[in-house]
Amino acid sequence: MASAIYPRVVQARLSTSPVLRFAVVGIAVAATVAVSGCGSGKSAKSTAPCGSAPRPAAAANFKPVVPNTLTITAHLPSPGYWEFSDENPDQLDEGYEFDLAKCLQEQFGLRRLSVRNASVDAVLSGKVKGYDISLSQITTAPNRAKSVSFSVPYFEPRESVLMRATGRMSTLTEARSARWGVQSGSPASALLHTVGVTQPHEYKSLSDASAALQSKEIDAFLADNAISFVLAGISNGRLHLAAQFSQPNAPGVYRAALPKGSTNVKAVNAVFNSLRDSGELNALLYRDLGADPGPIPLIAVPAT
């Protein structure tokens, strides 16, 4: 397997926090901050937010709730997606969804970006008001479209196998014989059940799961590729991505949520489609999440 290259947000974690601080958060504290220009007073990125993606004509039709400002909600903490703070939007300056927000701001021709910390549940229930777009790794389900409208997908997560540095996995037989760990409440348990693993160890926090893997309590930990890349990156070489599962009709693509009936859905879709068609979505994934699955073995999951 080729050596992994991890994103800048992971390198920042390595230099500032040797201990995993990621936890499952139920309801985030509401906060608002305006982030303009290069954001939070930090140095500008070396590339434009949208790279080479052309500006679609529909982007000109975007109507923000606050004049000249793109108002985004994010569910913090969100490692890899919104970086440099677990709670305070004032300190956000990196991450996949942060860069998507900056690109949307640029494509819509808006002067400011305002980020608010709000839980996914609060957004989906319609309790959150006065925002344009929510970027919080939101997946769709029939009951989730009652209070919001959804964009086209901007990311398709893939469940990834995290193992110790010497661990290898490339077949269903190897997967079935491993001692597995998952985070409580994650869709990884259902996938493992499809594979033939019925009782994986469950961990409340990612830090507990990482510790269990490194102490050899389990052989492998299953999480989506973004989480797995970050955990591998901050392990200082002790963990790596050994494989990814390829699922037919895999659930869980991430979409932006907008207030129900928003007239801005077409503009958001046009920008996401432009990013996808130009290859810039993949470029952002590689830069912010280290998501370059090319050299990682794919294990096909049987159709159910």
Write a structural description.
- This protein is α/β, with parallel strands linked by helices.
- It folds into 2 domains: 187 residues, Periplasmic binding protein-like II (D-Maltodextrin-Binding Protein, domain 2), CATH 3.40.190; 96 residues, Periplasmic binding protein-like II (D-Maltodextrin-Binding Protein, domain 2), CATH 3.40.190.
- Helices cover 27% and strands 22% of the residues.
- The protein has 9 helices and 12 strands.
- It has a 6-stranded mixed beta sheet.
- The N terminus is likely disordered.
Keywords, separated by commas or semicolons:
six-stranded mixed sheet, 304 residues, 9 helices, D-Maltodextrin-Binding Protein, domain 2, 2 domains
Main CATH class of the largest domain = Alpha Beta
CATH architecture of the largest domain: 3-Layer(aba) Sandwich
Task: Assign the CATH topology of the largest domain.
Answer: D-Maltodextrin-Binding Protein, domain 2
| Alpha-beta classification | alpha/beta
What is the total domain count? 2
Report the mean per-residue pLDDT as an integer.
Answer: 81
Q: Report, as a whole number of angstroms, the end-to-end distance.
A: 30 Å
Total of helices: 9
Beta percentage is: 15-25%
Helical residues, percent: 25-40%
SSE blueprint:
Elements: H1 8-16, E1 32-36, E2 69-74, H2 96-107, E3 112-117, H3 120-124, E4 133-138, E5 148-155, E6 159-164, H4 172-177, E7 180-183, H5 188-195, E8 201-203, H6 206-214, E9 220-224, H7 225-234, E10 239-246, E11 254-259, H8 265-278, H9 280-289, E12 298-300
Parallel strand pairs: 2-3, 2-4, 7-8, 7-9, 10-12
Antiparallel strand pairs: 1-3, 4-11, 5-11, 6-9, 6-10
